[in-house]
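Quick one: structure for this chain?
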Amino acid sequence: MYIIVGLGNPGKQYENTRHNIGFDVIEKLAEQEHVAVLEKKHMAIIGKGIVEGQKCILAKPQTFMNLSGESVRQLLDYYKVEETSELIVISDDISLDAGQIRIRKKGSAGGHNGLKDIIAHLGHESFIRIKMGVGEKPAGYDLADYVLGHFTSQERKVMDEAAARAADAIRAILAKGPDAAMNDFNGKVIGTDC
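Got it. Here's what it folds into:
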């Protein structure tokens, strides 16, 4: 069984923001795989389904970004999955170009408070994550204002395509493993073949 967690903040005011791209990926995957993500459990909204022949829990923590680890810890404790290989976390990343996807099997939080809290609750940095590029913060911008800012209509188009590619990346991880998925998806930017 896999637990697939998209990071974001609950509430209408946070919809369509850079920080909520993890929620967007969960919604895209759920839509494509016909999984209803409606049940409130483990400090998250979850849905259960089969993706690439694997039982999966799709989750959107409702703890707010900085406390994401509380929900992830509850999910892991309840479903007893192997957290280094069966937990997949999707988060925004300002160090990647908008639309770029990067899969990693471990690593630091890189300044991301949601990942930082998950690492604190797990006690290690070894879990699969999909980083969703949202573009670098413009000079003079406050970081919080930037990541909580809304996408422009052009950015939204790019990020919708990226969310669909991230859903494909999740399926690749489930079907072929993270190493093969990293080869297929890392470094590629929307609209290019290289």
